[in-house]
Amino acid sequence: MREQKTWQTVLKRTAVIVAAVFAFFPIYWLISTSFKPFDEWANWPPIWLTDNPTLQNYRIVFFPDLAREFAAQQEGSLDYKVSGSAWNAFKGSAIVSVAATIISVAFGTLAAYSIVRFKTGGKNYPFQFLTVRMVPPIAVVVPMVVLFSILKLSDTYFGLILAYSAFTLPFSIWMIRSFIDDVPAELEGAAMIHGMGQFRAFLTVTLPLVKGGILSTALFIFILNWSEFLFALVLTAGNVVTVTLQVANYVSASSGKLYGVQAAMGTISTIPVIVFGYMIQRHIVRGLTFGAIKR
Amino acid sequence: MSQLSVKSLNVSYDDLRALVDAEFDVEEGEFFCIVGPTNAGKSTLLKTIAGLAHPDSGTVNLKGRDVTRSQPKDRNVSLLFQNIALFPNLTGFQNIAFPLRTAGVAESEVTSRVKELGDMLKVGHVLDRLPKTFSGGEQQRVAIGRAIAKQADLLMLDEPLTNLDARIRTTLRIEFKEIHRLLGQTVIYVTHDQVEAMSMSDRIAVLHEGRLQQIGTPDEIYNRPANRFVAEFIGQPPMSFLNAEISQVNGTMGIEIGGVRIPMPGIGQIQGNATLPDKLALGVRPEAVRVTPTQSPETPHQAEIIWVEHLGSMSVLDLRFGHETLRAKVSPNNPISTEQTAWFGFEPRSDHLLNPETNMFFR
Amino acid sequence: MKGADTGDVKLELRSLRKVFDGVEAVKESNLILKRGEFLSLLGPSGCGKSTTLAMIAGFLEPTSGEILIDGKPVTHVPVQKRRIGLVFQDYAIFTKMSVRKNLLFGLEAQKVPRAEREKTVDEFAEKLDLKGLMKARGGELNMSEMQRVALARVLVTKPELLLLDEPMSNLDAALRASLRGELKRIQKDLGQTVLYVTHDQIEAMSMSDRIAVMNFGENLQIASPDDIYHRPKNRFVAEFIGDPPINMISCTVTGSGRSQRVSTEVHKDIPFETKVVSPGDHVLGIRAHHIVAAHEAFHGSIAAVVKLVENFGSEHVLHVTYGQDLLTVMVQPGFAREGDEVHVSFDLKDAHLVDRNSGAIYHPDEREAAA
Fold this sequence. Notes:
Chain B has about 375 residues and is α+β, with helices and mostly antiparallel strands. Chain B has helices at about 40-50, 90-100, 105-120, 135-150, 165-185, 195-200, 220-225, 230-235; strands spanning about 5-15, 15-25, 30-35, 55-60, 65, 75-80, 155-160, 185-190, 205-210, 210-215, 240-250, 250-255, 260-265, 280-285, 290, 300-310, 315-320, 325-330, 340-345, 355, 360.
């Protein structure tokens, strides 16, 4: 019996290690590539850890003049564009992500509260929200492009914020709903009996109890917004730039294979995602169990 | 003028009729109990009175004021919830102070009032802690403190003792009564435990499947139940029901139950006999049954004891005769302690004769 | 196989301990459950009774000690191999399945051959009075029927040992009363060995062959319901059992050995040999129905004022003053009202002398036996 147990342990550990390698390899590759010099980016056999680490790629990210200079050194590839500095992209992403997160979570909280407390829309309403989110984004993108150009929202911060807010709202509602659901209606009932109106009871009793949940929802939504690419790509035209677009910008139309620069940009823009993800991982698991466990 | 007057109140959730034509008055200073099994509509009734649930029709009057459409905060009622509902992020002190602070009571007065309540309810030592550190009894007492902190026209308690250990339950039951006497407040107390209802109330309303079955004092409810449900629900062990037929015993009127004839002269007075159907049921309270190991003038009938339950302060015997089962409650000193043949007797009460078709007692 | 000396013992706990985060939830529990016996673990919430049950079922690993079923250690045997039946407070039955399918389910899971499955289910349907319900779907049943089906579903698998964890605590009082008799009858008929966990003393008193009273992880007394009620070994057991709770009256013990005397408000210097109780202030425990109350003064009585009347229908419980203490007295309905003066007394032989320091109770009959 002892032996059997040892075997099981070995098997379990192996499985964990394989899964971990699978999950972390891309991150490792991203970071290691970001420090590789130009000629090692696409080598075969691959170079796992470079012998000549360089900060050149990061310099290119933050100082686009250097990038242009660098591009000039590449034979016959002056035609591709390295537009703007990464700072611009960070600014764009920050504005859009933060604003869209605040809007999504604010409306999501109110909608979730209404669904939980007043059974707004009936039993299946929250599911209907979620199914909206299950439509592949690509399916709605084309009509949105048309709509946005008619409404003159294309390539504006406001337009992108609006699109992001709308698209993350189902997530906000779903996650916050589960947190509000945890707060017994009697707590608000008690506050109302003891002299408060419904909305005040919500603000003073329920909100403080779910603020942790709302915060983690906000961080989750922020991460979604920060890494969004498709909407950013089709709804902008150079005026508004996000980090994901900036990464894409380092891909040249002709010959510029700026993998290292992409990796550097990717590494930097991943940092907030990893930090926030770590901060909220405990809540995320709970928020995404989709109400499977009934208390 | 009644403190509370409820008129033809109907409440429904989706297709379920939670409350049907509820109608009753509660007088000032009264301890009024609403008792009934789970899902009888008790909590719905309280929530409707408090303004947390909304009736389809009917009215709720508090001190002669129609509050049917008022907000909970404007009704001046207090409600202690079944699940206690202490604010988990507030200390014991802040919880009790909540209604006072919301009402804008001066902070110095809040402090002294909360201290006073804390002492009265013996929770002074937990006031600066969060509810999760309280024991079950402490939680309950702090919740009571919050419910009575501000003088309300009506204090409603929803199953306040459920989920507590038997011992704390007994202690708190007596404390509730004392608090009630001390404050002279009108109380509506909801419970599924008939012992609580019987032992605490001035009057009891028995609720079943959303309908009020009977309203009366504990003695009225116990001795003159309106129907079979009330008779079986109130009293532990419950009343037994025996199939009975009217018959003559030595020239006097009587009834026959499972082959046993019992004289019952009073039977003729019920509705002039003519209206009594052939088949009746007779309710017998277990403590009214005498059981002895040998025959005696008081115990003329024979039965098999089929089940004995020793509960310490009493023993419960199930007697079988004919096809009937009769439950008897006897003192622990009774010589019968196991399944055996025994002798029994009881005085049938004419007000415990039941029409088995309608399940109503003849009156 | 140690056939001979274990033949009668179904379950044995040997110094079973469980420690959670440094807190001893179960302390050195020793218990023997005989074949066909109905034993209750009784105690307030948090006393360790459910932890004990969880260890026997195999959901929790004991910190130390051993669990033996039929004389064989099962401490490290996984849950599904212990052949134990379990019914919880939230008994789950399949609402979309017929009662019959519900009953067959457990047997199917155990891969019992089809013909035998059907036969066993029919047999139990008969015994448990479920024949009329076999075609009904789980969702159509009332609470009492659901409970019976939940029980039957476990019983058909013929478990070596049936563990019941507060199976009635979600039910109304009236329903509980009728189910008690039913459960006991079924258990007796089948000769099923049962370990029943409850905080309700009435359930424990009415159904058990023996009761183990637990508090703070400790088995305080294991004895028949009769002994637990009439001969509690210590203050906790005496106070936990009985409704209304036993009265605890202050008393004074003087002298020692055979010349020991007890004094209370009504009793002065009554010989009461205790041996274990040292002279000084102690406590007398006396049950409400052992206190005699009358409207007129009688020999040895003391006047008392009725502070509170609790109406229980068939009897009233008076709370009366008795020196600095309050006494509960059980009387006939209508005997007295609040504010009345009554006269009370009791026979000292019905009382338990509780050692104030150790909480131990020394019994009159043991005293005689010892003398």
